[in-house]
């Protein structure tokens, strides 16, 4: 069942940054903070990382989840790690679990995707749910209040093979940047919330 939004927001244009740019981490952090603030009427923060450790290209999500978990983010629930990945087999079950445990949460979905040659290495952020499996022609349930995707390789032909043969180096660097940007942006948002609640 599709999750009904419980808050109104002003749409924010899709965002894209090349992970290799010098200021990419700072720019991504600032954008994520802005987007989280835009969804102000939520009670919890959930980072939902999709992918599998059995495919190099598709390991972006679990790598983000594992790195973020190691930072011990306060007030943030992380689903999908290298040890406990969220993939096609358990996706629907995990979505149901999250929606039951965190009914009024902001869910940020993270996944790898394939794209054009000139877009490889770009990190994208957009409003609305993520549609996992779309790049490999799979029909899977949607998840996310907004989503982050990392373009790890070229799409359009033999997607499974391409994902399996993606360089781990680029995936790890992108995962590191996404995890740190999520940590800093959510931490900043929650700190601001604590300040505003103690100001009265």
UniProtKB/TrEMBL annotation:
InterPro entries: Pept_HybD-like_dom_sf, YyaC. Pfam families: DUF1256. SUPFAM superfamilies: HybD-like. It comes from the Bacteria. This is Sporulation protein YyaC. It comes from Ammoniphilus resinae.
């Amino acid at each position: 069942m599709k999750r009904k939004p419980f808050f109104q927001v002003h749409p924010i244009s899709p965002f894209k940054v090349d992970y290799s740019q010098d200021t990419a981490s700072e720019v991504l952090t600032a954008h994520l903070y802005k987007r989280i603030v835009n969804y102000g009427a939520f009670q919890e923060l959930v980072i939902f990382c999709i992918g599998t450790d059995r495919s190099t290209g598709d390991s972006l999500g679990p790598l983000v989840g594992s790195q973020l978990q190691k930072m011990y983010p306060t007030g943030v629930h992380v689903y999908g790690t290298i040890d406990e990945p969220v993939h096609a087999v358990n996706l629907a079950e995990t979505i149901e679990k999250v929606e039951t445990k965190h009914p009024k949460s902001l869910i940020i979905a993270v996944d790898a995707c394939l794209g054009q040659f000139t877009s490889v290495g770009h990190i994208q952020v957009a409003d609305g749910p993520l549609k996992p499996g779309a790049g490999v022609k799979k029909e899977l349930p949607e998840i996310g209040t907004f989503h982050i995707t990392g373009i790890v390789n070229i799409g359009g032909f033999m997607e499974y093979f391409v994902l399996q043969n993606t360089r781990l180096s680029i995936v790890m660097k992108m995962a590191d940047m996404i995890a740190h940007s999520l940590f800093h942006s959510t931490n900043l948002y929650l700190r601001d919330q604590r300040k505003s609640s103690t100001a009265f």
